[in-house]
Amino acid sequence: MRTRSFVKLVAAVGSGAVLLAGCAGGGSGGSSGDAKVIKIGTLHPLSGANAGDGTQLENGVKLGIKAINDAGGIKALGGAKLELDGGDTKGTPDTGQSEAQRLVGDGVVALVGTYQSAVSANVAAVAERNKVPFVMDVSGDDAILSHGYKYSFRMQPQNSRFGTTAAQYVKAISAAANRPVTKVAYLHEATAFGTGVYQAFKAEAQKSGLQMGPEITYDAASVSDLTTQIAQVKASGANVLVVSGYYRDGVLAAKAIQTVKPALDAVVGAADGAFDQPQFPTDAGSASQGYFDVNYHFDDKSADAKAFSALYKTTYKDEARTGAALAYDSVRVIAAALEKAGSTDASKVRDAIAQTNLTPLTLSDGPIKFSDKGENSTSLPVLTQVQNGAPVVVYPQSAAVKSPVYPANPGQ
Amino acid sequence: MTGPTNAGGAVPSKDGTALRGGSRATSRLSLRHSTPLIVTGALLVVLFIAALLRSGSMGITGQALLTGIISGGVYSLLAMGLTLVFGVLDIVNFAHGAFLAVGLYITYEVAHQAGLNPYIALPVAILGLFVLGLLIQLLLLNRTMGGTLERQLLITLGLSLLISNVLLLVFGGDPLSANLKSDPGVHVFGAVANLSRVIALGGALVLAVLVFLLLERTSFGRAIRAVAASRQGAGLVGIDVRLVYAVTFGLGTACAGAAGMLIAPFTTITPTAGDQFNILAFVVVVMGGLGNVMGAVISGVIVGLVEQLGGVAIAGQSPLLGVFILFLLILLIRPQGIFGATSS
Hints:
The complex is a heterodimer.
Chain A: H1 2-24, E1 37-44, H2 51-70, E2 81-88, H3 93-105, E3 110-113, H4 117-130, E4 134-136, E5 152-154, H5 159-176, E6 183-189, H6 192-207, E7 211-218, H7 227-236, E8 240-244, H8 247-260, E9 266-270, H9 280-284, E10 292-295, H10 303-316, H11 322-341, H12 346-354, E11 382-387, E12 390-395
Parallel strand pairs in A: 1-2, 1-3, 3-4, 4-5, 6-7, 6-8, 8-9, 9-10
Antiparallel strand pairs in A: 10-11, 11-12
Helix pairs in contact in A: 2-11, 3-4, 5-6, 7-8, 11-12
Chain B: H1 34-55, H2 58-89, H3 96-113, H4 121-141, H5 149-171, E1 185-188, E2 191-194, H6 195-217, H7 219-229, H8 231-236, H9 241-263, H10 275-288, H11 293-313, H12 320-333
Helix pairs in contact in B: 1-2, 1-11, 2-6, 2-9, 2-10, 2-11, 3-4, 3-5, 3-9, 4-9, 6-7, 6-9, 7-9, 10-11, 11-12
């Protein structure tokens, strides 16, 4: 009796497992019979201080995978389905590295990630060593791709481009408003990100004859008040303040500016993590009015981008940020490469990625194209401004949906 | 390290015995700690002058002074709870920042779900975290008391991870806010601070005085001090040591909850928001002398001032540079902290 029911149980569990495995493998679909599963590894901070953004990126990947599978999978590989193999970096480089190693061991065909440059730098090294393509959705530090890596690619513009374009844009819109910027104060967080963007801005500003005021730095991890720093801006007599920081400190800066009331024509973020975010006007209130930011952004005129935002909202009950679109496009890049290579062989997929030619959901100078260093050479930083409680693209004109309001009189 | 510390000529430590941490968890200060105080004072004066010269503006330096005192008040409140728990229970509480985050989310709930003024959350946060701390000590930590230090350390570290991940699960990782409807700037001698920050400083001072009075003027406070001095002796005279442990841990946790509520109106609320204060709170606690509540309060303000003035004086660096230079100096001159017990 006992043995028999035990055998039955095992049989039941066993057949259930087979069924489940069949489902997971998408065994029912595909015309060529042995439709296999292709794993894509993701590395995002799903816990820790950046969990909010990490979840957005992870969701972007999920939507990307679903879109490809719903459209019939990778046709060149018999309708093979994509499958997500996720890793939580916890926002730390060593966890990111060990998770990358684990995913490579799992047999992922490519990696997508990671949001933080320090984590991406480690993952890129793992990818190179193991010859697995790595598509960076969000990670700005120039240094990551300065080692001549062959297997790493970057979707977003690198940090130095934000600094350079920020200087150009500020000069252009202030001149157009007949109120040319004369002196720029710069507030940035003290690590590689803030410092790198600052140096690029300064180089470009000096080239075009702008006077640079004080460089004021702070520690993003521990700062709880930026009033003193903004008092320094006020005393400097600068008429534009440029800020490079993360979300939390960006909100602190906006509140301090409203309290201290320096006489500024504009506050401009250069790759700032707060000023172009949809929830920034909620958290900073009226202090957010008129804030500019130079950043990557959705192509608000593209039907695909609108559809993506709507789908994201219905699926995750949250406003999609541009990072999610970069993650979504990263999956499309990998899928297109698999299609083109007709193989999951890493070096063939890598070569196909290098020849990507896809229209992105983000604003660009044309289809995604990777330089021989792996940079997306057509990615385009644009200028956004908070108008009526929401950030909108205002410059360059080709991408703008509204005109810039200048002077913006921030904090008044 | 006895030579220079008694230079003030004041009475030697009242217990005078070799009892470890004899004057811990007392809230008294004495002038025998004059050398490190003079060094600290001198450093502050030097920083003030350097900030003045560097910025060339009394306005900026005055702003740094005001901001320093105000953010120092919040550090004090946090460090007070941390040092109380260490002084009485010998527990290095790594979950302190996580408790602060719980205070933040309580405030968010009161402000958003109930639509009330965030300050109504203050008694809720204090009471809620007091009970949470009490329960954690009774159910979790009391069993490990008297065992190796690592056990409590690992438990609080685990608690910290547990709490921030539960918050992440419930509220998500996106930053939230509990702003005041209006938060005008308050002007003090040409410097300016948001009303919410001034209230935070005032609240921190009031709570510090309350804890001081509780420790010094009530019989329960005497019991807490007795347990801090000698848990065996306290037990022998009929003090319920486990209850004192639980209440003390509850008090320490309540301090973190109060700090969380008081900073909620001017910070962004995330599950890991407490982490940014963790390192500073530990620096303040060690500088103030492990277990010395008044020492923690004064050191908190010193750290706030050094951070702000140092940020102006040494431009292009993390403002914490000055704080860590002072910290190293204190550790060299007086490893037990400015107000720490002489014996160790």
